[in-house]
């Protein structure tokens, strides 16, 4: 009830609800505030990216918690928010961090595609070059193998297993 009242006030002020959610999400991400990030997702949300693949709402919320609590030397910028219609948006964002598995610095440029329902993210897909990311995260191994389907499947499997272990804790 309170949520819908707030959405009505936002609309009266002339602020696009979806854009407000995007700002809330990425500002929280800049602060590594996973709880606020999680609150931006609809109860039926799904997420996908090249590393984790397709996640349901429980998995995506756990993923953000895991990434935020493990982040080292993290910074994030975002912009170029495109409101495509009442439901769909895109946003460009860049994360710079130390990849925990290798200790290597990663600068990842991402295009987020989001669909909204009731002012919350119901579909979220992050697109980026897995080969570019792999070269930074894994060095020579990523440079030599990061382009291959085999390497990418192994990477995704390892990421999913790590997420499941995190969720079981």
TrEMBL record:
Pfam families noted in UniProt = SnoaL_2 (PF12680)
Q: Which SUPFAM superfamilies match?
A: NTF2-like
Residue span(s) of domain SnoaL-like = 23-124
Membrane spanning stretches: none
**What is the protein name given in its UniProt record?**
SnoaL-like protein
**What does UniProt list as this organism's lineage?**
Bacteria, Pseudomonadati, Bacteroidota, Chitinophagia, Chitinophagales
């Amino acid at each position: 009830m309170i949520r819908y009242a707030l959405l009505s006030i936002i609309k009266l002020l002339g602020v696009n609800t979806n854009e407000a959610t995007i700002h809330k999400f990425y500002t929280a991400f800049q602060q590594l505030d996973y709880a606020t990030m999680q609150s931006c997702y609809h109860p039926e949300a799904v997420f996908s990216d090249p590393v984790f693949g397709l996640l349901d709402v429980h998995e995506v919320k756990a993923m953000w918690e895991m990434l935020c609590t493990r982040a080292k030397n993290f910074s994030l910028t975002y912009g170029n928010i495109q409101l495509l219609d009442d439901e769909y948006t895109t946003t460009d964002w860049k994360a710079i961090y130390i990849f925990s598995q290798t200790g290597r610095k990663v600068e990842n440029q991402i295009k987020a595609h989001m669909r909204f329902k009731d002012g919350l993210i119901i579909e979220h897909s992050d697109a980026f070059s897995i080969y570019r990311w792999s070269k930074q995260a894994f060095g020579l191994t990523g440079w030599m193998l990061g382009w291959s389907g085999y390497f990418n499947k192994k990477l995704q499997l390892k990421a999913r297993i790590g997420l499941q272990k995190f969720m079981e804790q």
